[in-house]
Amino acid sequence: MMKQIELIQSWQQETGNGPVIVHCMNGAERSGLFCVVAALVERTKIEQDVAVEQIIKQMRSIRPQVIQSVDQFKFCYDAIKTYLEQYDSYSNFSEH
């Protein structure tokens, strides 16, 4: 999914930063998961803040069916962790 988000962001920048439409069969499960992870990546880039629960809450205010299972919730955390691990060598702290 991270590669897909990267490709879409690249395409979006190349085409003038217009809106991107994401949809699945019920309009919430898969597309909602994608939108939450994409929003997490974007927020992390801009604000250096990982606020999984806050992003989910914001998305649910628009689409209440977003992230309905524990597996989806865990996937959000795992996805942003994977994203952040790409930059481990650039962090200004180390684990002891």
From TrEMBL:
Every Tyrosine specific protein phosphatases domain range: 1-74
Domain Tyrosine-protein phosphatase: 1-83
GO terms of molecular function: protein tyrosine phosphatase activity
UniProt cross-references to PROSITE patterns, sorted A to Z: TYR_PHOSPHATASE_1, TYR_PHOSPHATASE_2, TYR_PHOSPHATASE_PTP
Annotated protein name in UniProt: Protein tyrosine phosphatase
Organism: Potamilus streckersoni
Lineage of producing organism: Eukaryota, Metazoa, Spiralia, Lophotrochozoa, Mollusca
